[in-house]
C-alpha cells in the first residue's frame, strides 16, 4: 500500500530506513540535528537516533566533507548535507581531490561510501548561492557518481541506494519540488527498486523526445501535457543519473521520434545539455530530423529573486524549442 507524501518527506523516510538498517550510517551537516535541516529533511532523526549518528556540525563545509572522508576510511557511511547548492564550493577541493580520487589512488583498496546531499536549483525566491545548479562540475569529475531525483518515489529509493553504494555519490535534490506529493511504497524491498543509474521514460510519446532531470522533469511533463492539446505527442525522459548517464533509452527514443530537446536549469555553456546533444548526434545522426536543441538557464550569475522567473526554463520555452525543432 502506498502513502501519498512529499518529496521531502520521502527523503526523510529513506534516510530513516538507512539509519535503521546499518549502524555505520551517520548523517552530518549544518543544523541537521535539532532543527531537522533548513528544509526539515532530517526532521526527527536526531531525536530517534541520537547525537552520535545525526550530527550538527560547525558552519564549515570543507570540515564536513573532510571529516566524512576520515569516517568512511574507518568503515562508516557518512551522509553529508550541504545546506544550499552554492555552499558546496568551500568543500569542492575535498570532493574532487579526495572523495573522487581515493579509490583509484589506492587501486580499489580504500572505499569512500560517502553521500553528499545538495538541495539545488531555483524556484524558491532565493538569491545567488541558494539557487545554483552546479551539477556539471561534479559530473565532469571521474570517480564521482552524480544522481538527482524528480519525484517522491524515486527520492525514497534513490537516497537508500546511494547510501548503500560503495562509491561516493553526489545526490542533488530539487528544492523547489520538496513539497510536491506522490505515491510512495514505504514498505517496498530495496532489492526490487529501479536501478540507481538508469534513465526512465516518464511519458511515452511519438513526435519528439524531451530529456530532463531534477526539477525540470515536472516542467517538461507540463509542457508535454500542453503540447498534447495541440496534437503533439512528446516523450519525456528523466535521466535520474548524471554520471554515469544511461543513454540507451535516450537513443531508442530519438531514433523513433527524430527530434530531441534537452532541458536543464544550469547555464547552457558547457552544461550537461551540450554533452547529451553531442552523444545523440553521434549515435542517432541518421535518425535526426532536426538539430538537438537545448533549453537552459542563461549564461549569467543567478539573478535577483524578483526576476528569477525570467531566468528559469519554463513550459513556454520548452514548447518554443519543440516548435523550432518541427520548423526544420
Give a verbal description of the structure:
This protein is of the alpha/beta class and 328 residues long. Helices cover 35% and strands 20% of the residues. The protein contains twelve helices and 14 strands. The protein has helices spanning 7-21, 45-49, 61-73, 92-99, 102-105, 135-139, 152-164, 216-229, 248-257, 272-284, 308-311, 315-326, and strands at residues 3-6, 25-29, 54-56, 77-81, 115-120, 145-148, 169-174, 181-184, 200-203, 208-212, 234-238, 241-243, 260-267, 293-297. The strands form three sheets. It has a seven-stranded mixed beta sheet, sandwiched between helices. Strands 9-11-10-13-14 form a five-stranded mixed beta sheet, with helices on both faces. Helix 1 packs parallel to helix 7, helix 3 runs parallel beside helix 4 and helix 8 packs across helix 12. The longest helix has 15 residues, at 7-21. The termini are far apart. The model has no long low-confidence stretch (mean pLDDT 97).
Strand content: 15-25%
The largest β sheet comes out as:
7 strands, mixed
General shape: globular
Give the overall pLDDT as a whole number. 97
Helical fraction = 25-40%
- The helix count comes to 12
Low-pLDDT residue spans: none
- The beta-strand count equals 14
Gyration radius (Cα, Å) is 19 Å
Topology as a string of helices (H) and strands (E): EHEHEHEHHEHEHEEEEHEEHEHEHH
> Which strand order do you get reading across the main beta sheet?
3-2-4-5-7-6-12
- Helix/strand/pairing category: alpha/beta
Note the gap between the termini: 47 Å
